[in-house]
Amino acid sequence: MIKSVEKAAVLIEALPYLQKFAGSTVVIKYGGNAMLNDELKKNVIQDIIFLKYVGIRPVVVHGGGPEITAMLEKLGKKSEFVRGLRVSDAETVEIAEMVLVGKINSEIVKLLNFYGAKAVGISGKDADFILAVKHLAKVQEDGVTKEVDIGFVGDILRLNTALVENLLDKGYIPVIAPIGVGKDGATYNINADYVAGEIAAALGAEKLALLTDVEGIYRDYQDKSTFISTLSLAEAQVMIKDGSIEGGMIPKVEACIKALAGGVAKTHIIDGRQPHSLLLEVFTSEGIGTEVVKYRRYISG
Ligand SMILES: Nc1ncnc2c1ncn2[C@@H]1O[C@H](COP(=O)(O)OP(=O)(O)O)[C@@H](O)[C@H]1O
Ligand SMILES: CC(=O)N[C@@H](CCC(=O)OP(=O)(O)O)C(=O)O
């Protein structure tokens, strides 16, 4: 049992962060790999509500990659990824939309409302929130960079930021599904990390927190002793180039780069499997996850 004095110390430790973040916007990317059981989901939902009740403006962007993969498998379709992005033919994007908007978005909204917030779900199609264009994946072949068509995968052309700002101003928690719409009316599957990075930059958020299924970034992710607590943009770019950041971690790091370039003060990749990792990241001095920063300070001597 923790003693009352220790409980009070925990609350007092949060005081400078409560003061610092009151009124600011925090974008939370809730990844599909951090949704894997109900207890974890409840923890994340309670953390988001906690942020809201201490005066922070949380914006939730969710993924759902594993559920899309499982649904595609049920329908006899195999998933293929290029640089962390799902190759999406017309049928795949339709299923991705069904899973993301019809299932995951409405479930997160339901849970947030059940635990005491007022949440509103939106996809990129609501009020043309995410205007998208076809993404061309850049892959290296024999030392040459080639552009590859991976189907209805979108890049973000424009975000209707006013929609999210209006919701925040009225006290709602926006819950965003990463589906975009083209000028031609086509539906695009967009990696949720990119949506989170762009929306954090567009809103001038204080913080972007990406919840995933690893502790953070490793120099060699097969070797847990190579964990990195702070990574600069330049270092991250080198790690993508030399292949030590790969697959699903690439969009995350690129989202941090986008957010930092857009003026977001802090970006973090944290372990969504650790109970209340979001609260620990925001309100304690305990270092958690990997912080991606513009520049790293070197202490000499
Ligand atoms: N250098 C690295 N450090 C940590 N994880 C990495 C690294 N490179 C690739 N990864 C992979 O990225 C994964 C996280 O991305 P992803 O599976 O898309 O998660 P999410 O569903 O949360 O978006 C990790 O589980 C890990 O397999
Ligand atoms: C183009 C693309 O890759 N879209 C993603 C969208 C969901 C997502 O981003 O889910 P996670 O955050 O759980 O990975 C996909 O189809 O898996």
Automatic annotation (TrEMBL):
<dbReference type="InterPro" id="IPR041727">
    <property type="entry name" value="NAGK-C"/>
</dbReference>
<dbReference type="InterPro" id="IPR001048">
    <property type="entry name" value="Asp/Glu/Uridylate_kinase"/>
</dbReference>
<protein>
    <recommendedName>
        <fullName>Acetylglutamate kinase</fullName>
        <ecNumber>2.7.2.8</ecNumber>
    </recommendedName>
</protein>
<comment type="pathway">
    <text>Amino-acid biosynthesis; L-arginine biosynthesis; N(2)-acetyl-L-ornithine from L-glutamate: step 2/4.</text>
</comment>
<dbReference type="GO" id="GO:0042450">
    <property type="term" value="P:L-arginine biosynthetic process via ornithine"/>
</dbReference>
<dbReference type="InterPro" id="IPR001057">
    <property type="entry name" value="Glu/AcGlu_kinase"/>
</dbReference>
<keyword id="KW-0808">Transferase</keyword>
<keyword id="KW-0055">Arginine biosynthesis</keyword>
<dbReference type="GO" id="GO:0005737">
    <property type="term" value="C:cytoplasm"/>
</dbReference>
<feature type="site" description="Transition state stabilizer">
    <location>
        <position position="252"/>
    </location>
</feature>
<feature type="domain" description="Aspartate/glutamate/uridylate kinase">
    <location>
        <begin position="25"/>
        <end position="271"/>
    </location>
</feature>
<dbReference type="InterPro" id="IPR004662">
    <property type="entry name" value="AcgluKinase_fam"/>
</dbReference>
<keyword id="KW-0028">Amino-acid biosynthesis</keyword>
<dbReference type="GO" id="GO:0005524">
    <property type="term" value="F:ATP binding"/>
</dbReference>
<dbReference type="InterPro" id="IPR037528">
    <property type="entry name" value="ArgB"/>
</dbReference>
<feature type="binding site">
    <location>
        <position position="189"/>
    </location>
    <ligand>
        <name>substrate</name>
    </ligand>
</feature>
<feature type="site" description="Transition state stabilizer">
    <location>
        <position position="29"/>
    </location>
</feature>
<feature type="binding site">
    <location>
        <begin position="64"/>
        <end position="65"/>
    </location>
    <ligand>
        <name>substrate</name>
    </ligand>
</feature>
<keyword id="KW-0067">ATP-binding</keyword>
<feature type="binding site">
    <location>
        <position position="86"/>
    </location>
    <ligand>
        <name>substrate</name>
    </ligand>
</feature>
<comment type="similarity">
    <text>Belongs to the acetylglutamate kinase family. ArgB subfamily.</text>
</comment>
<dbReference type="InterPro" id="IPR036393">
    <property type="entry name" value="AceGlu_kinase-like_sf"/>
</dbReference>
<keyword id="KW-0547">Nucleotide-binding</keyword>
<dbReference type="Pfam" id="PF00696">
    <property type="entry name" value="AA_kinase"/>
</dbReference>
<dbReference type="GO" id="GO:0003991">
    <property type="term" value="F:acetylglutamate kinase activity"/>
</dbReference>
<keyword id="KW-0963">Cytoplasm</keyword>
<comment type="function">
    <text>Catalyzes the ATP-dependent phosphorylation of N-acetyl-L-glutamate.</text>
</comment>
<keyword id="KW-0418">Kinase</keyword>
